[in-house]
Automatic annotation (TrEMBL):
One of its GO terms (biological process) is polysaccharide biosynthetic process. The active site is at 262 (nucleophile). One of its GO terms (molecular function) is UDP-glucose 6-dehydrogenase activity. Keywords: NAD, Oxidoreductase. Residues 318-420 form the UDP-glucose/GDP-mannose dehydrogenase C-terminal domain. Substrate binds at residues 147-150, 206, 251-255, 259, 325. NAD(+) binds at residues 30, 35, 85, 121, 150, 265, 332. It comes from Microbacterium natoriense. Its EC number is 1.1.1.22. Belongs to the UDP-glucose/GDP-mannose dehydrogenase family. This is UDP-glucose 6-dehydrogenase. Pathway: Nucleotide-sugar biosynthesis; UDP-alpha-D-glucuronate biosynthesis; UDP-alpha-D-glucuronate from UDP-alpha-D-glucose: step 1/1.
Length: 436
């Protein structure tokens, strides 16, 4: 099938490459010339495992190309809308400027029977406006939210947990759903549930899923606060409640909390939209989820200060991690960098290391020290703070090896990802979050 993907950011670039890899003829459109040039050369504009290989295979097959001209979307039967919806400056709502601009640009190229499949994360109600906007062209709107995680984007796109398609009732909506089922046939045949809903429900599914995940993380971090006060261990607690299959262990990872380009902004936009709908109180708890999450960053800083005897000024602190999570170079709303910046603000001599995100971090926070080499970052440190659970720190850093490099064996495990017993056995003062 011929597809276009409008917007080649995180979501769009991966979607375009993944769709070409399952046999579709895909054009990716973006206004950013540099991004289009990079993608056309088979280079991923951001760190994402497997993406470069997929791009190169797609380009070589002739089934994948990229363009800055919306006119190149003409002739595709399905157009995926994958532009960004950032947080509105000065507010919590989503900024839909890019969505509306992309739809306006696409309208002249739509033909009767084309399907416009919205993938961007939008406030509920956006789809009906877009549907009305494209109605005169004879094209049909379907809402098809995307649930991919950074670092797993290719896997999540090709083997999703579920596919959700929101269409309006009637023949054209049913036909649009069938066309999308065909687009995703390999995943559907491999067993991915294909759920057809109305458009508003499909929009809400995305917001609700992100709100639930954020709530689960903040729930365990709230338990960490209690565990700290009670002298208990939140990681053992998470294991124990996680064995209950109704709860499950995933997303009960405690520590400095969630960040990134999605969860923080999406829960705020979700709450803002609920308020517009007169149902702010229904999701009032999301403000608490946000507040708990941000408190954990303060707590991590406090633990470092305490571990250093109350004074961090002039102390060398090795910060292991800058990305908001492993397998990503994304530093948007990164809790890791937030902790580093605050420690620097207190006068610490902060040295940040990260396997992928140093260049991005340096561009935004030039006041921090950086060291590409993990061991050089550790050398002479008075405290080591693990803030992104990369395998380089979690699995491949032995406490004995690190101990030989530092000035003092003090480690703060902001992700509760280290083997506390092993670090203690090697003579380290180990401080987890929500652990005795
Ligand atoms: C998230 C959703 O998972 C995805 O479905 C949606 O499409 C986009 O938003 P992503 O932002 O890529 O994906 O990252 P995710 O893996 O969900 O992690 C988000 C943040 O939560 C990270 O900062 C991570 O470190 C943190 N996290 C995650 C925890 O603190 N504890 C956990 O147990 C899990």
């Amino acid at each position: 099938m011929r597809l276009s993907v409008i917007g080649c950011g995180y979501l769009g670039a991966v979607h375009a490459a993944a769709m070409a890899s399952i046999g579709h003829d895909v054009v990716g459109i973006d206004v950013d010339e540099q991004k289009v040039a990079a993608l056309s050369a088979g280079t991923a504009p951001f760190f994402e495992p497997q993406l470069a290989e997929l791009l190169q295979a797609g380009l070589a097959s002739g089934r994948l190309r990229f363009s800055t001209h919306m006119a190149d979307a003409a002739g595709a039967g399905v157009h995926f809308l994958a532009v960004g919806t950032p947080q509105l400056a000065g507010g919590h709502a989503a900024d839909l400027r890019f969505v509306h601009a992309a739809v306006d640009d696409l309208v002249p190229h739509l033909r009767p029977g084309d399907v416009l499949a919205g993938k961007s994360t939008v406030p509920v109600g956006t789809a009906s406006g877009i549907s009305a906007r494209i109605a005169p062209t004879g094209a049909v709107l379907a809402w098809n939210p995307e649930f991919l995680r950074e670092g797993w984007a290719v896997h999540d796109t090709l083997a999703p947990d579920r596919i959700v398609v929101g269409v309006s009732s009637g023949e054209s909506g049913e036909r649009a759903a069938e066309i999308l089922r065909e687009v995703y046939r390999p995943a559907v045949e491999a067993g991915a549930p294909f759920l057809v809903t109305d458009p508003a429900t499909a929009e809400l599914v995305k917001g609700a899923a992100n709100a639930f995940l954020a709530t689960k993380i903040s729930f365990i971090n709230a338990m960490a606060e209690i565990a700290e006060a009670a002298g208990a261990d939140v990681t053992l607690l998470a294991d124990a409640i996680g064995h209950d299959t109704r709860i499950g262990r995933r997303y009960l990872g405690s520590g400095i909390g969630f960040g990134g380009g999605c969860l923080p902004k999406d829960i705020r936009a979700f709450a803002a939209r609920a308020e517009e709908l007169g149902r702010g109180e229904s999701v009032g708890f999301l403000h608490e989820v946000d507040a708990i999450n941000l408190r954990r960053r303060d707590r991590a800083v406090q633990i470092v200060v305490d571990a250093l005897g109350g004074l961090v000024f002039g102390k060398r602190v090795a910060v292991l991690g800058a990305a908001f999570k492993p397998f990503s170079d994304d530093i948007r709303d990164s809790p890791a960098l937030d902790v580093a910046v605050r420690l620097r603000g207190l006068g610490a001599d902060v040295v940040v290391t990260d396997p992928a995100a140093i260049d991005n971090a340096r561009a935004v926070h030039p006041q921090l020290g950086y060291e590409r080499d993990r061991d050089e970052a550790l050398r002479g440190a008075h405290a080591v703070v693990v803030v992104t659970e990369w395998d380089e720190y979690r699995r491949h850093l032995s406490p004995e090896h690190a101990g030989a490099l530092v000035s003092a064996r003090v480690v703060v495990d902001g992700r509760n990802c280290l083997d506390a017993a092993a670090w203690r056995a090697a003579g380290w003062a180990y401080h987890g979050m929500g652990r005795r």
